[in-house]
Amino acid sequence: NVARTALMFAQAAMTPNRVLVNGGLGVLSTSDGRPVSLLAFTISGGRFAEIDIVADPKRLAALALPQPPMR
To answer: What's the pTM?
Structure first.
């Protein structure tokens, strides 16, 4: 269920960008260059142990978001 929800967020956004979040794997989804959602993954024992998702525009605006790579 968690993976299905994460995929739904990834598909809804126009551009997923791999980024580092607190030194770990993350995905910053943008639309027209604006952040839509941030997913941060915690991996333990080679498996996804936790996925944190921020999609609230006010919370995203308050974060120091990583810059996605230029395409």
So the answer is: 0.70
